[in-house]
Write a structure and sequence with these properties.
Elements: H1 3-16, H2 30-36, H3 41-56, H4 67-81, E1 85-91, E2 94-101, E3 110-115, E4 136-137, E5 142-144, H5 152-167, E6 176-181, H6 189-197, H7 199-202, E7 206-216, E8 224-232, E9 234-243, E10 247-248, H8 257-269, H9 279-292, H10 294-300, H11 303-316, H12 318-321, E11 327-334, E12 341-342, E13 345-354, H13 360-371, E14 376-384, E15 387-388, H14 394-404, E16 410-417, E17 432-441, H15 443-446, E18 455-457, H16 458-476
Parallel strand pairs: 3-6, 3-7, 7-17, 8-16
Antiparallel strand pairs: 1-2, 2-6, 4-5, 5-18, 7-8, 8-15, 9-13, 9-14, 10-12, 11-13
Helix pairs in contact: 2-16, 3-5, 3-16, 4-5, 5-16, 9-10, 14-16
Length: 478
């Protein structure tokens, strides 16, 4: 390194502080090592792939859900393995599965959580021969199907983990529950039902749920980052309605409802946003920098330098930008009547996602001030609060350790999820909920979540099973 550049780096280090301390997860505890590689991984991986493909073929599209079908599919596997389970309905046809492998009770239970329902899909928009409910396995070893990433893929890994724990007769110091719930995509009524009616029988202290996923080339070329969700944004779903006098489409007149709605949307689009860095991002950034090395690593490991030089880069990627600001997405419109009729009311549906620290009532007031039009009103559709869990925790450490184990250019660390999951029902009760779908995908493949061509590779299923099973063994084996 040239002397002048080295001196400059030292000067930056002096001015902007030392590198952030990067916690190193401890090794797997001795009592777990016996069981970590007890399974036949080739056979277990093949079985997990078959389970997932069968699960993807069960139509649990929400609406209407019909999650009872998915619960019965999972239950048939559990019954065959002799694992006790029950299926309880939160509403007619909305089945929720609860299975338990009993432990000694030395520690509170661990829950493996996923949701059975999937979002709608348009088969005509998917690649030829890749029907969303067909679970096609192509010649490149990729499984195509709605729910492969969100979140039947995780559900299959968690189911297979329960099967392996039972087959290996792993002695448990804590019970391990498998929870597969209804209606996550349309409001979370399944998880809410379990919290209200059954949590006294479950009472987990820790939960593995959906959330983060491994993304290739997320910040550094050639590097994969597993952003494990330790917090997630709240949701404020609004219907913004513009009012005005109805009229004939042949005579454009200022002040009509559609014009007011367009002006309101333009003002929201042009609002000034200030990024807020959650402590988890500093931690994750330091881990990314430690792995990357060089000047990039030097910057990413120092919070002040990150704010000065890297924040713009983070704001340029939609995936990371969404974790730094309160967001507004327009997800639909209502009010059109006929091409030649100007309606008296027209609406836009807004999906607002709020960082920890933002109160929905304050954000709502801010939107009203920005729009600044008495003839534009807002109605709340759904409100969920931001939630977070501490990540100085053995289970979080186990997820980090198993995600990166034996692999180069892989980073795992804490993150704020821009989405909202069923973990929001659990964190306010003190449950430590961590979100990780242990698959490694490209940014293009990531678009399959709620989009077209959702898919996951066989290799991801095999590797993800090892991550989930080993992390559970690390914290639950007696």
């Amino acid at each position: 390194m040239p002397t002048r550049l080295f001196a400059t780096l030292l000067l930056f280090g002096a001015l902007f502080g030392c590198a952030a301390t990067i916690p190193k997860p401890a090794e797997a505890p001795p009592q777990a090592r016996r069981w970590r590689d007890a399974p036949d991984w080739k056979a277990a991986g093949d079985e997990a792939v078959a389970l997932l493909r069968g699960y993807l073929r069960v139509d649990t599209t929400n609406p209407p859900g019909n999650e009872q079908r998915g619960a019965e599919y999972l239950g048939a596997v559990l019954k065959r393995e002799g694992i006790p389970f029950e299926i309880v309905e939160s509403a007619p046809g909305r089945g929720n599965l609860i299975a338990e492998l009993k432990g000694s009770g030395e520690e509170k239970p661990l829950c493996l959580l996923s949701h059975i329902d999937v979002v709608t899909a348009d088969p005509e928009k998917w690649s030829a021969g890749k029907d969303p409910l067909a679970a096609t396995l192509d010649d490149k070893g990729v499984i195509w199907g709605r729910g492969a990433l969100d979140t039947k893929g995780l559900g299959a890994l968690e189911l297979m983990t329960m099967v392996l724990l039972k087959r290996q007769n792993v002695p448990l110091k804590r019970s391990v529950f498998l929870l597969a719930v209804a209606d996550e995509e349309q409001g979370g009524s399944g998880m809410q039902f379990l919290v209200d009616e059954r949590w006294g029988d479950i009472g987990c202290s820790h939960v593995l749920n959906e959330g983060g996923i491994g993304v290739k080339d997320l910040f550094v070329k050639g590097q994969t980052v597993y952003a494990i969700s330790v917090a997630e944004k709240g949701g404020l779903w609004l219907k913004m309605t513009a009012h005005g006098e109805a009229g004939h489409g042949s005579t454009p007149t200022p002040g009509r409802a559609p014009d007011r709605l367009l002006r309101a949307l333009s003002r929201l689009r042009g609002r000034v946003v200030e990024p807020r860095i959650h402590p988890a991002l500093y931690d994750l950034s330091a881990r990314v920098g430690d792995d990357a090395g060089g000047f990039t690593g030097f910057v990413l490991e120092r919070p002040a330098l990150l704010r000065t030089f890297a924040l713009g880069t983070f704001m340029s990627f939609p995936e990371s930008r969404a974790t730094l600001i309160d967001t507004i997405s327009v997800t639909g419109f209502e009010g059109r009547r006929a091409p030649n009729v100007i309606p008296s009311e027209v609406s836009a549906v807004l999906d607002c996602r709020l960082l920890p620290g933002t109160r929905p009532v304050d954000f709502y007031a801010k939107l009203r001030d920005i729009v600044d039009d008495p003839l534009v009103t807002f109605d709340a559709i759904q409100i969920t609060l931001p939630t977070e869990s501490p990540y100085d925790d053995p289970f979080f450490d186990a997820l980090v350790r198993e995600s990166v184990d034996g692999r180069a250019q892989i980073v795992a660390g804490p993150a704020v999820s821009p989405g909202t999951t069923d973990s929001r029902f659990l964190r306010p009760m003190g449950v430590r909920a961590y979100g990780l779908v242990p698959f490694e995908v490209t940014k293009e493949e990531l678009k399959g979540i709620h989009g077209n061509d959702e898919r996951v590779s066989v290799e991801n299923v095999r590797r993800g099973l090892r991550v989930v099973y080993r992390a559970v063994v690390d914290v639950a084996a007696k």
